[in-house]
């Protein structure tokens, strides 16, 4: 039960969703799009989220697709992580998504909800950053398609009244060799410490991280240093660690020093598994 | 308070219930329908005590609004009658205080239905969604495996 009231809308089309948002915004109801809606409940119950108009995108057909179209795999934003895992079209995404929260919760958490979440982990964005995917976004000015690496800076840069419809990924990335590792401080079920996802394209290793900084990221600088085969692996990892963005998280899940210790080992593991060492 | 009258399909019956949009499914089935089998625990999606089945999949009813459940097929622990997993919990002493039991049974019931050939990895992945403070995990795992083996 949430400590505030809101109007609940379940539009059946993109246009209806956009119109509902604009009307609610005009009436100062601070509208909020939801998909799985888990953050509305978990953050709303402790007053970290407030809205007077909830627009639930789950019934919009374009947001529920999961199919290959030409050279691309297109995945809708309101599909649950469980559905994406069970279908397993994109093994790196399956592996990364399967480590989010727990199995039952993943039946409610959706791809779009996780990518656009307020909680800083947002792990499911990592495979798409690595695969140079395209995001399909709709808003008051219509539909636009953009490379995710142009629009994702710490979080997906959405304008007022815009929401994510689909993510499209070229087939050659979907089938590329990968590794995805989540480290927790406690057992197999504790909260995440660091998640690393990596793809090998040709001889190049791409790496994206969640849980290290208060945002997920992929760094070209870090990748360039990790791929410098003229250096011994220790130097490549050391130089990569010196080019990380900041700040490094320092919280109850792990100190900044501990996170860097774990990351050093993770980077060694990634290079070894992908045969880049 | 902005209330509305909705219909929920629960345990095979269409039930009329007055809810706020902000009410969770857990609150509606316990407070409005008197189905107190689903237990309030963390109310944050962490413990699994409130697990019910929605369209035959496990769902933490504290993480779902009642209005989101319109048109869905909801099954609570009260809707299970003499199922193999209930008997297996008794036979294997798969509970102590019993508070987590309805949530565990609903999760196990769905697991057996969705993955009748579930391996150890799948069982661990699914059951990781529920917490038993009495730590009766070994007996719960045994109960699930008993049902899977007998199928």
Q: First CA to last CA of chain B: what distance?
A: 49 Å
In the CATH hierarchy, what is the class of the largest domain in chain A? Alpha Beta
Q: Tell me, briefly, the overall form of chain A.
A: globular
Instruction: State the end-to-end distance of chain A.
Output: 52 Å
Average pLDDT over all residues of chain A? 95
Task: Report the sheet with the most strands of chain A, covering strand number, pairing sense and barrel closure.
Answer: 5 strands, antiparallel
How is the quaternary structure best described? Answer: heterodimer
Helix-strand string of chain B: EEHEEEHHHH
Count of separate DSSP helical elements of chain A: 12
Number of strands of chain B: 5
User: Which whole number gives the mean pLDDT of chain B?
Assistant: 96
* Percent in strands of chain B: 15-25%
- How many beta-strand runs of chain A? 14
Number of folding domains of chain A? Answer: 3
Radius of gyration of chain A: 19 Å
Question: Tell me, what is the CATH class of the largest domain in chain B?
Answer: Alpha Beta
Q: Strands of the largest sheet of chain A, in order across it?
A: 4-5-10-6-7
- Helix proportion of chain A: 25-40%
Structural class of chain A: alpha+beta
Q: Would you tell me the structural class of the helices and strands of chain B?
A: alpha+beta
Brief digest:
The complex is a heterodimer of chains A (277) and B (151). Chain A has helices at residues 14-26, 38-44, 81-87, 91-97, 103-106, 111-115, 125-130, 148-151, 171-174, 220-226, 233-241, 256-273, and strands at residues 7-9, 32-34, 53-56, 66-69, 72-76, 134-139, 142-147, 152-153, 155-156, 163-170, 178-184, 192-201, 204-210, 217-218.
Main traits of this protein?
heterodimer; A: 277 residues; alpha+beta; Uridine Diphospho-n-acetylenolpyruvylglucosamine Reductase, domain 2; Uridine Diphospho-n-acetylenolpyruvylglucosamine Reductase, domain 3; Enolase-like, domain 1; 3 domains; five-stranded antiparallel sheet; four-stranded antiparallel sheet; 33% helix; 25% strand; B: 151 residues; Ubiquitin-like (UB roll); DNA polymerase, domain 1; 2 domains; five-stranded mixed sheet; 5 helices; 5 strands; 34% helix; Mopterin_DH_FAD-bd (chain A); CO/xanthine dehydrogenase FAD-binding subunit (chain A); flavoprotein (chain A)
């Amino acid at each position: 039960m949430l400590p505030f009231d809101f109007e609940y809308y379940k539009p059946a089309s993109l246009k209806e969703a956009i119109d509902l948002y604009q009307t609610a915004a005009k009436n100062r109801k601070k509208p909020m799009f939801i998909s799985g809606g888990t953050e509305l409940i978990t953050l709303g119950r402790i007053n970290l989220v407030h809205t007077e108009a909830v627009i639930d995108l789950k019934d919009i057909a374009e947001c529920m697709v999961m199919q290959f179209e030409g050279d691309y795999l297109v995945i809708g934003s309101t599909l649950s992580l469980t559905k994406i895992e069970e279908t397993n079209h994109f093994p790196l995404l399956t592996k990364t998504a399967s480590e989010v929260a727990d199995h039952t919760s993943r039946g409610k958490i959706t791809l779009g909800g996780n990518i656009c979440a307020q909680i800083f982990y947002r792990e499911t964005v990592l495979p798409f950053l690595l695969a140079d995917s395209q995001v399909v976004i709709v808003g008051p000015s219509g539909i636009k398609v953009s490379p995710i690496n142009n629009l994702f800076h710490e979080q997906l840069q959405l304008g007022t009244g815009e929401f994510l419809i689909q993510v499209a990924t070229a087939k050659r990335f979907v089938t590329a060799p990968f590794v995805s590792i989540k480290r927790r401080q406690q057992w197999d079920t504790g909260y995440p410490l660091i998640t690393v996802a990596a793809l090998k394209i040709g001889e190049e290793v791409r790496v994206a991280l969640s849980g290290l900084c208060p945002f997920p990221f992929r760094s070209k600088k870090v990748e360039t240093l990790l791929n410098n085969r003229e250096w011994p692996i220790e130097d490549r990892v050391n130089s990569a660690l010196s080019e990380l963005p900041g700040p490094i998280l320092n919280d109850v899940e792990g100190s900044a020093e501990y996170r860097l210790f774990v990351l050093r080992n993770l980077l060694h593991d990634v290079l070894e598994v992908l045969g880049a060492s | 308070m902005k209330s509305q009258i909705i219909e929920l399909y629960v345990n095979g019956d269409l039930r009329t219930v007055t809810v706020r949009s902000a009410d969770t499914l857990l609150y509606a089935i316990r407070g409005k329908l008197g189905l107190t089998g689903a237990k309030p625990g963390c109310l944050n999606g962490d413990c699994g005590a409130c697990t019910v089945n929605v369209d035959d999949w496990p769902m933490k009813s504290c993480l779902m609004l009642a209005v989101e459940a319109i048109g869905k097929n909801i099954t609570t622990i009260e809707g299970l009658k003499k199922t193999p997993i209930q008997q297996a919990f008794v036979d294997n002493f798969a509970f102590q205080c019993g508070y987590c039991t309805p949530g565990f049974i609903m999760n196990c019931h769905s697991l057996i239905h969705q993955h009748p050939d579930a391996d150890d990895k799948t069982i661990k992945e699914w059951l990781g969604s529920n917490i038993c403070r009495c730590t009766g995990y070994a007996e719960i795992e045994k109960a699930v495996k008993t049902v899977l083996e007998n199928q």
